[in-house]
Structure formats: structure tokens, C-alpha cells
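#lab-general

N.A. 3:47 PM
ok so I finally got the sequence cleaned up, no stray characters, all 104 residues accounted for. can someone with queue access submit it? mine expired

B.Y. 3:52 PM
send it over

N.A. 3:53 PM
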Amino acid sequence: MRKSGKWMTIVDDRVLEYIREEGHGSPTEMKENGPIRYSRQYIAERCRKLADHGLLKPVGNGVYTITERGEAYLDEELDTHEDAPEQELDEQGDENGAHSESNS
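B.Y. 4:20 PM
back already:
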């Protein structure tokens, strides 16, 4: 069973599944051609959130591809329960790195 984070919605799984199957996708394509029955705006919002958490990668013009993290989540190899956005993870890594250097 997939371990989705509190920040995730059921739509996120559908978005990731669609993009994995198609190779790439935009909110407009998912709305018009996919099984996602939400507005294009809501799908776009979820794509941005998934990209913030490193599960999707924006490639331009509103098109996204799935990342290794996204694949791992779909394959039940990644627990996003306590996941933080990419920027937050980077900042924590920088802080931890600086902290551990001062303790050396």
C-alpha cells in the first residue's frame, strides 16, 4: 500500500499514474484525456505541489514528467508521510551540514 503524506490528495495518485503511463502530461491533457474529473486549475495546483515535493518535474509550457521519487512512491518504495518540499529539504540539509561541520 502506498504511504501518502498528509499534504497529498487522491488526485495526486491519479496525476502520477497518468504521467507515468503517458511519459509526460499537462493539466489540460489530464483534464481532457485522463480519468481525472477535476478542473484544470486544481490539477495544475496539484502538479505544482507534487513538483515542490520532488515527485514531478516541470519541463516547460505546463508539462510535467515523473521523477525517480515519483516512481518510487507509485511502486510503494517511498513514504511521503513526513515529506517536506524540495526547497525545505535542501535548507534542512544545508543547516544540518553546517551544524555537523561545527561539531567535527
